Amino acid sequence: MALSVAFNLLETELDILANELRAFAAENSPLNAPDRFSLSDECLLEGLLSRVWQAWCGFARFCVIGSCEGTTTSAGVLVQALPDARSEEHVSSAVIRANSRSNPPYWVSTNATLRYEPTWGDVDVLNRVLTRLRPNNHLQLLAAFSSISSSAKVVQTIRNGVAHHNHQTLKELLNFQSAYIVFRIAHPTHAMFWVEPSTSDFLITSAIEELKVAAQAAIA
């Protein structure tokens, strides 16, 4: 699959999810206090947030594995496969090793258990893996993923807070407050509707737009 196909799938998914989030906000305005969110609202938002993060992780995974195996950019330029990237399972194993150790060898085995792979949407993981495996378009991918670092991190932090809801994960999320126009939150999903001051958009929908811009840069 060409990188442009992966981008089109991501863009379609994110556009659908952004529309759902905007519709929720319009129906429940103003979203400016914890009591504006019901339990069913939080459950719905958890699901939408998870789909956003999964879409981004899936795109990042394809970019790395596809680039190692050989692919084509949106401009039609061929990205040559790495010599040791004999299959998706070989690349998967190399990614796991590259994420956990600074020195090679990386291409020594295969991996058939996807849950052993690192968190694909994590920009720190992507930086380590791309720097160490060095697919032929790694500089393009590194620049694109680095540009989205803050937005990807806050989406990841909200999702982690949802998955592991405790005072520590909530504190990690509150560390992002200075970048947004905020209100008091009682659940991590509430922070999705903090406001990004430069665009006056919600945190989550602003982040979705930035993910799309970074993804488009990655496939160029």
Outline of this structure?
With 220 residues, the chain is mainly alpha-helical. Helices cover 59% and strands 4% of the residues. It has helices at 3-28, 39-69, 88-100, 123-133, 138-147, 149-163, 167-174, 203-218; strands at 71-72, 78-79, 195-196, 201-202.
Detailed description of the structure:
Helices cover 59% and strands 4% of the residues. With 220 residues, it is mainly alpha-helical. The strands form two sheets. A two-stranded antiparallel ribbon has the order 1-2. Strands 3-4 form a two-stranded antiparallel ribbon. β1 and β2 form a beta hairpin. The chain is built from eight helices and four strands; from the N terminus they run ααββαααααββα.
Biggest sheet descriptor: 2 strands, antiparallel
Q: How does the overall form come out from the CA principal axes?
A: elongated
> Poorly predicted ranges (pLDDT <50, ≥5 residues)?
none
The assigned structural class equals mainly alpha
- The first-to-last residue Cα distance is 15 Å
Element order: H for helix, E for strand: HHEEHHHHHEEH
Strand order of the largest sheet: 1-2
Rg, rounded, reads: 18 Å
The number of strands is 4
Helical content class:
55-70%
Taken as a percent bin, the fraction of beta residues is under 5%
Can you give the mean pLDDT?
A: 97
List the helices and strands and how they pair.
Elements: H1 3-28, H2 39-69, E1 71-72, E2 78-79, H3 88-100, H4 123-133, H5 138-147, H6 149-163, H7 167-174, E3 195-196, E4 201-202, H8 203-218
Antiparallel strand pairs: 1-2, 3-4
Helix pairs in contact: 1-2, 1-8, 2-6, 2-8, 3-4, 4-5, 5-8, 6-7
